[in-house]
């Protein structure tokens, strides 16, 4: 995959899937813009990647921070071709009846409003350039309720709807909106799920999870015309045929 000359903004790039995606897109020749709250981590990763990487500290809950980060990215690299809405949280895992309303709401602000903020900021720019790709990291939890995860399942389901809505409004303008359901991935999020001890995902063994490089590879593939049949929908890395098409084993 050659992404030379393309600029990719990745939210939640300080570790896990977002970090792996930043490295994979940079390896494919793209300019990469890393967003996360942990400025030190994204700064370090950007320095390791090189001159084609820019780190911008940003909390996706904040519209003004996302807008400013997208403007800085576009100014530095002359536009944005791909947005990867990846930032997300699983905490606080809690039964609905015992959940803390403020914490529940905060998770929604990150997992759903963060996606909206990213889309809202890049779409006008992409329209001006004649198109772009908006890839949103979804979850099997967008389609299945899991106990203790009401905030996560509901916010991921709503984020999936944002992909569908964006496709409906902007496909004709050349904006490619697709979701990725990665399966379970060996990241900090799975450590938090394990530590909660709640539900079937917490019972999985670490060896059951795929490495973050797999969804990173999938996100690269989603920028190709081969993925166009999924525009407005979601692809699942659990599907062996899809994995084969992306050149992933297992
Ligand atoms: P992770 O290692 O915990 O990484 C989450 C990332 O999101 C971090 O970079 C974190 O950075 C960032 N983030 C959290 N809150 C943020 C905020 N308010 N503003 C900006 N960035 C924020 O988890 P991961 O597994 O890589 O998760 C990435 C995505 O994959 C999430 O959307 C998750 O729901 C999805 N997913 C994961 C799995 C899995 O099994 N791991 C399965 C399905 C879907 P800072 O803390 O530095 O801000």
In terms of topology, how is this protein built?
Layout: E1 7-11, H1 16-27, E2 31-36, H2 39-49, E3 53-57, H3 63-77, E4 82-85, H4 101-129, E5 132-137, H5 150-170, E6 175-181, H6 188-196, H7 199-202, H8 213-221, E7 234-236, H9 240-246
Parallel strand pairs: 1-2, 1-4, 2-3, 4-5, 5-6, 6-7
The structure holds NADP nicotinamide-adenine-dinucleotide phosphate.
NADP nicotinamide-adenine-dinucleotide phosphate is lined by residues 11-18, 36-38, 58-61, 86-89, 110, 137, 139, 182, 184-185, 187-190.
Q: Can you walk through the features of this model?
A:
Keywords: Oxidoreductase. Belongs to the short-chain dehydrogenases/reductases (SDR) family. It comes from Sinisalibacter lacisalsi. This is Short-chain dehydrogenase. It holds the Pfam family adh_short. By secondary structure, the chain is of the alpha/beta class. It has a single domain, classed as Rossmann fold (3-Layer(aba) Sandwich), CATH 3.40.50.720. It is 47% helix and 14% strand. The protein is built from nine helices and seven strands, in the order E-H-E-H-E-H-E-H-E-H-E-H-H-H-E-H. The protein has a seven-stranded parallel sheet with strand order 3-2-1-4-5-6-7, with helices on both faces. Strand 1, helix 1 and strand 2 form a beta-alpha-beta unit. Helix 3 packs parallel to helix 4 and helix 4 packs parallel to helix 5. The structure holds NADP nicotinamide-adenine-dinucleotide phosphate. NADP nicotinamide-adenine-dinucleotide phosphate (NAP) binds next to helix 1 and helix 6.
């Amino acid at each position: 995959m050659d992404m030379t000359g393309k600029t990719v903004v990745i939210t939640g790039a300080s570790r896990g899937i977002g970090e792996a995606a930043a490295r994979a897109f940079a390896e494919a020749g793209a300019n990469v813009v890393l967003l996360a709250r942990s400025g030190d981590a994204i700064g370090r990763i950007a320095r390791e990647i090189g001159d084609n990487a820019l780190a911008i500290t940003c909390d996706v809950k904040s519209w003004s921070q996302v807008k400013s980060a997208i403007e800085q990215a576009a100014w530095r690299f002359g536009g944005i071709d791909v947005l990867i809405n990846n930032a997300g949280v699983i905490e606080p895992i809690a039964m609905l009846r015992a959940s803390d309303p403020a914490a529940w709401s905060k998770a929604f602000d990150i997992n759903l409003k963060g996606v909206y903020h990213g889309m809202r900021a890049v779409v006008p720019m992409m329209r001006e350039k004649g198109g772009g790709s908006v890839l949103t990291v979804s979850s099997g939890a967008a389609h299945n309720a899991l106990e203790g995860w009401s905030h996560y399942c509901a916010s991921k389901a709503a984020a999936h709807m944002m992909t569908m809505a964006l496709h409906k409004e902007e496909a004709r303008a050349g904006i490619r909106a697709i979701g990725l359901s990665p399966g379970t991935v060996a990241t900090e999020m799975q450590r938090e799920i394990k530590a909660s001890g709640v539900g079937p995902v917490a019972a999985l063994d670490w060896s059951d999870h795929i490495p973050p490089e797999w969804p990173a590879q999938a996100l690269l593939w989603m920028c190709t015309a081969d993925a166009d049949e999924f525009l407005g929908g979601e692809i699942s890395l659990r599907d062996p045929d899809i994995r084969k098409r992306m050149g992933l084993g297992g």
